[in-house]
């Protein structure tokens, strides 16, 4: 058997240099994620213990916090040393992304929550994965043109307890 080792990256590969305003944007995203996770944890528990209730109280808010705290624009789509496209993840690992992606499927079992809370939970999961995807696809545009900041504002809006509710707003637009 022959073992072929992959080539090591060249020494002349430039180091990643942060975009202007990147540290502030990433800090803002982490704060928005912590607030969203706190809102998820504040949701009512099911009347009787259920696995989905435990998941909503622990794994989901933990995934939101982990995703927004680990955002990394350096983990963007790029060409590998062999010329193949390496798909970036924006700093969010596959396990966290998987947890966020099952929210629409899991909510059908969370029948004690209101439709407004369901919509807000789906918004949180979608926005959180959306921020990571924006950073993976085009970090410069996402940071410099305020896309990440707008997504963080939307995340805050979706989880504001004093807000009348997304479902109510949707009904008024019909």
What is the average per-residue confidence, as pLDDT, rounded to a whole number? 88
Give helix % range.
55-70%
User: How many angstroms separate the termini?
Assistant: 67 Å
Strand order of the largest sheet: 1-2
Weakly predicted, low-confidence segments: none
Number of DSSP strand runs = 2
Q: State the helix count.
A: 9
Rg computed from alpha carbons, rounded to a whole number of angstroms: 19 Å
- Provide the β-strand percentage band: under 5%
The secondary-structure element order is HHHEEHHHHHH
Assign the structural class, choosing from mainly alpha, mainly beta, alpha/beta, alpha+beta, or little secondary structure.
Answer: mainly alpha
Give a quick account of the main beta sheet: strands, pairing sense, barrel closure: 2 strands, antiparallel
Globular, elongated, flat, extended or rod-shaped: what is the shape? globular
Using brief descriptors, characterize the structure shown:
9 helices; 174 residues; two-stranded antiparallel sheet; mainly alpha; 2% strand
Provide an overview of this structure.
The chain has 174 residues and is mainly alpha-helical. The protein is 57% helix and 2% strand. The chain has helices at 22-42, 51-57, 59-69, 94-101, 103-106, 115-137, 139-144, 147-158, 166-173, and strands at residues 78-79, 85-86. The protein has a two-stranded antiparallel ribbon with strand order 1-2. Helix 3 crosses helix 4.
């Amino acid at each position: 058997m022959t073992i072929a080792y992959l080539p090591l990256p060249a020494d002349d590969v430039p180091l990643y240099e942060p975009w202007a305003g990147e540290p502030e944007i990433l800090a803002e995203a982490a704060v928005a994620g912590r607030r969203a996770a706190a809102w998820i944890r504040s949701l009512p528990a099911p009347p009787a213990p259920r696995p989905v209730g435990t998941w909503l109280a622990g794994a989901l808010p933990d995934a939101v916090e982990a995703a927004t705290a680990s955002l990394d624009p350096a983990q963007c789509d790029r060409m590998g040393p062999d010329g193949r496209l390496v798909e970036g993840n924006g700093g969010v690992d596959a396990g966290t992304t998987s947890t966020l992606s099952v929210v629409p499927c899991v909510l059908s079992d969370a029948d004690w929550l209101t439709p407004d809370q369901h919509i807000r939970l789906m918004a949180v999961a979608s926005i959180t994965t959306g921020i990571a995807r924006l950073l993976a696809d085009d970090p410069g545009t996402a940071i410099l043109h305020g896309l990440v900041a707008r997504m963080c504002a939307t995340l805050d809006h979706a989880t504001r307890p004093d807000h009348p509710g997304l479902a109510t707003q949707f009904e008024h637009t019909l």
